[in-house]
Amino acid sequence: MLALTKIINWLDRNFLGLGISFLLFFIPLYPKLPLFGVNHTWVYVRLEDFAILLLGLCWLFLLILKKISVKTPLTIPIFLYWAIGAVSLLFTLYVTAPHLANFFPNVAIFHYLRRIEYMTVFLIAFSSVRDVKQIRYFLIALLLGLVGVIIYGFGQKYLGFPAFLTMNEEFAKGTPLRLGPSARISSTFGGQYDLAAYLVILITVCSSFIIGLKERLIKIAFIVLTIFSLMLLLFTASRVSFAVCLLTIAIVLVLHKKSAFIPLLVVTGIFLMLIVSGTSERFAKTLRVQNIIIDALTGKPIATAQNIQTDPDKNDQANENLPEGTYFLALPISKTNQPIATTTALVKQSLPSGLKTPDGKGYILTKINGSFLIQKALVYDISFTTRLQGGWPRALQAFGRNSVLGTGYSSISLATDNDYLRALGETGILGFVSFFGIFCVFFLFIKKSINSVTDQNIRTFVIGVTGALVGLLVNALMIDVFEASKVAYIIWMLLGISIALLLKYTKKQFSLIREIQNLIPSKWFALLFFSVIGFTVFLSSLSNYFVGDDFTWLRWAATTSVEGILKYFTDAAGFFYRPIEKLFFLTNYFVFWLNPVGYHFLGLIIHIATTWMVYLLTLKLTNTKLIALISGLFFLLLPMHHESIFWSSSSGGLFAGLFFLISVYFYIVNIQTNNKVNLFLSLTSFTLALLSHEVAVTLPLVILFLNIFYGRIIDLKRKRTQREILLFWLILGFYFLIRWYSKALTPSGDYSYNILHLPFNFIGNYLGYWGIMIFSERAIPVYDLIRRILSQDLKVALILLTFAVGIVLVLISLMKGKVINLLTNLNTKILFFSVIFSFITLLPYLGLGNLAERYGYIASFSFSLILATLLYEFYNKIKLKHERLSLLILTSVVTVISIFYAVEINRINGDWKNAGEIVKMTLSLVKQKHPNFSSPSEIYFVNIPIRLNRAWVFPVGLKDGIWFYYRDNPNFQINVTGIGSLEEATRLKGQNPNAYIFIFKDNKPEEVN
Asked: Is the pTM of this model over 0.90?
């Protein structure tokens, strides 16, 4: 009886530990044999699900009896994710589901429950750890499972062991398959990618023990296991997982402070890759040079192709039948690599699976007609192709439909091959942040507690698991690794064991709220915060089509070879002198051609980077992280930036804004440290800003003002300070010299200065720009009305101007000595800095006869800084009496303002999207109506829409857009003319038989016959 009692007590203490050890051994080894299926999917319930259910019920029983606890650092984040997932699921079932194709409620519920199941094993594993000595049993079970997987994998490779795959509906039924000699090994897993991800985890853990252990025999055993695991990983031919594995081992080396071995690691990895047959060839096939066909109408690549003059069978073995519409990376145009314009070409079209031509080929060569370019490009292989044109776009579309909660579990497809995009598409930004936030909390806990661990085995194990998790997070860029059941179970159990072991040594209580409060002031958190908000708000704009001047820039890119890049810096060709903007279009054209997504994506990246510089610069000026974060947020979302972000032709202004603020930032650091390196970085950034856009010409004045602002007026007499300032003016002088030499465009029309109107324009435009910053572009009609009224009577305008100047002088005289006292106050000093900074940066444009939102991009930093400073000052005053209330009020106000800006951005983006549709419709209609013109020809456009509200349509660029559609004609001579009236266009058409008329009615083009 006593022995039975001991056994029961022992089981009571160790049952969960035995269960977790069993799962660590059993789950990797047991093939994915189905028990019963779920309707409308080939995902099955399997034996391990029942094992986990049984263990989970025991865990729940012990939890009810309060014999175990779920108080872990990850408990709240996990429960939060479950709650958000439930809300997303319910919203999908009752709101979104009727509008989704191929969506099945039972499958969505099943996928949600599977995610709960994966994370439940974390809680069970955590509760199973009663003693640190249990680590040896968990490790033995884990390694025995690995040994079994290795043996079965090598048996599959050399002895014909069957594979049980789950990559399609038929395979998933549990049919044993015999793999061919060149097949990719999957061992006991449902696919080679799942096996590769599992091996990344185990190799990383083993590598950590190789470094951390002192016992020689055990270390040798780990080395042998690691070598065989690496060979099995190479048998999977998973390029991403192999690269990630090397990365995770490097991370482990860094955490163990053995970074010197990283070069040896890289050499060893390359050696292993070369000696394993088939692996190096697969790496080499990632990108291959081939001829491809580009549709001149859309700029989209159609397929791999061969010129009709070439031998259709030439290099046939090097080609791979890729789906139509795949993605390519264009090679730079050179004298020896000119694109060939043609109206016919041979295209390889794949036959349905299993069908062959009489000569045994799986494709046919078909002659197609149209307007095409044949150009050499780097072709992605089929693995990357299916991601780029299949799963990833579907996930982004789902996210675009509901960015907050997504479109529900299983609503995209069975696989997305990117866990980040899958989370965004299925559960929106809330689900994305809550899910990956779990791992962020894990890393925070590791950082806080790892140094307190004295047991070398525990420390080594935790470092290995941490490196493995990093590897899976990288792997998740290309694989749905956290939805792969065998991999998910293993990593969640290891996370639970790691946290339980660390809590045995951690004396200080882990407070998630306190850790988040400590994290928020981090500069890298700010960058992450701006990136998440930026992509959430602006994601829908990435698909906007080109408008306005875009086609002028694109035509330059399309007709420039790599040999002609130098001319960007010496010959402006009668246009703006903006070499970096031209390089931006040239580089994008090589990569994306006429696909606007890439251009908008990179533009958004630049805007986010500029926002981060606003944060860093504000931090330098105010030394207050909260002001810096709020200022950056407002700058990121300011509706005034719509031209800069939505219009690709404004990319020069984006680059100039980024480099301008970088230059200012490093000059302030130079003032504070007297370090020549910072001065050099400032001067270099200034040069790049000038090469991006002429708005940067004001930076030397800003530098002079910074010396005054920081109390260096006396230093202005010192030669060091004078040399610093002189260097900026010398660069500016050289810029004007080379600008003159390059014959850059000179100001004219509304973009020129009128001496008579100059004083009125200065005052009016300055107030106008501030009106746009405060009230968005809704302020422009009011500004235009006032300007129109005053321009009709200069006397009234002069009286009002004199009156305004008089009021300012009276206020200054009343304040007298108070001005100096006010400037000693930090917040008042910041307000003063902002006003002067905005005036200096707007200086080149204040005298012009118009307003343009893009000109205020840099100056808007002042508004963001002022608004953030005022809100912080208000917060501080309330904080003295009501600390919690003050934070709530500040958060609420900032949130309301941010939502207002986001709504305005979304509204204005609608105009830009519609403007792009007008452009696309116009160019397509011309080509559709006239596949070929008799050169030379005239096209008359009547009522050309210049703008749609504040979005540009066709200010210029219409002829360049048409050129793209007819550039296969070597004698392209089509003159495009805008005509004010249909009568005038009809009269001109009567004089030219090769003339055609198109008229815009309600912004819709139609041809006049």
From this structure: no
